[in-house]
Amino acid sequence: MLLLKGISLEHSWFYYNLLLLPFHFWYCQAIDGQAGNILQRANRVNENLKKSYLTNGDFHQIKNCLSQHQIVKKLVGFKTNLNHFDHLYGKLYKECTSIYASGSTSSGIYPIWLKERFQFTYVYCDMELVSTKKGWTTIQRRMNGEINFERGWDDYVRGFGNPSSEYWLGLENMYRLSRQITTATVLGMIDIQSPAIGFDLEDWDGMNVFVQYTYFWLESKATNYLLNVRGLSRTFWNYFDTAPIYESEFSTPDKDNDDDNNAHCARDRKSGWWFHSCFEANLNGAYPKYKQKMKWENILWRGWQYINNNGTALRFVSMKLYHTVVEP
Ligand SMILES: [Ca+2]
């Protein structure tokens, strides 16, 4: 509110057209330049893969001047039909949790903003999973065998498949997704809020289990996207003391980073995974035939026979993240 000699001019024609409008114009010009600067900064930082993101402050400043579409166009040069972004309503969603919270409660494909990569990616948001947590971001899914998961390092880093069906979101995206939600501490440090991860498993007999860890994050490419999971939940998991998930580096048929010096698990199992030895879990193994028993060379979850005595192969598996969103 502008006070001039004690008189409020906030709502007057004079104030808006003669004072505010020019100011607004100037301000948006300045912000326009700033948008360019942000893009430049992001490009610069992307080059050396150091941290770069559109901070809340940046966004709040520019959103007052530019429409969502303009921001997307200006900052990202995004070429897809921008109507896809109509539901964003002035906010760049960074995970499915806040998309659900915004009222989009149907499972489906949504664009999310990877702030450290300065780009959008499409993911399947699971909004229906029976849990107190709603809005899970799917990072891997197998459901019909139509996508070949026998691929090399570059594909596993970049991602492949189709979010409407089977896909692997890509290690670089997963690494960034595990660092999406940050809060500033009192001392000005950045605190990363690691998401939870769920492994959604169902076999050909319809037996299903949801295995959840409270915290998930990946290390960077420098340490081959080492897997970190902490806090195995026993809520849906009364069969074992632990799950067959190991905190190992990622391996692919053309890159052996597993923990077994005498084996090349990814080559033998024909897929990429965080292999410890070759006999634990491998949710990227070959898709099993109808009603087949679980085999080492296929999608694997060691100990499944304790869930289902038949030891029936898994027909559906999905890995998904739940971000606890801290409102500023
Ligand atoms: Ca090895």
Description:
Residues 87-325 form the Fibrinogen C-terminal domain. This is Fibrinogen C-terminal domain-containing protein. Keywords: Disulfide bond, Signal. The structure is a single chain. This protein is α+β, with helices and mostly antiparallel strands and 328 residues long. It folds into two domains: 7-91, no CATH class; 93-322, Alpha-Beta Complex (Gamma Fibrinogen, Chain A, domain 1). 23% of the residues lie in helices and 23% in strands. The protein has seven helices and 15 strands. The chain has helices at residues 13-47, 56-63, 68-76, 96-101, 153-158, 171-177, 265-269; strands spanning 3-4, 7-8, 108-114, 119-126, 136-142, 160-161, 167-168, 182-184, 190-192, 196-203, 208-218, 227-232, 281-282, 300-301, 314-322. The longest helix has 35 residues, at 13-47. The protein binds calcium ion. Residues 256, 258, 260-261, 263-264 line the site of calcium ion.
Task: Describe, in short, the structure shown.
The chain has about 325 residues and is α+β, with helices and mostly antiparallel strands. Helix content is about 25%, strand content about 25%. The protein has two domains: about 5-90, no CATH class; about 95-320, Alpha-Beta Complex (Gamma Fibrinogen, Chain A, domain 1), CATH 3.90.215.10.
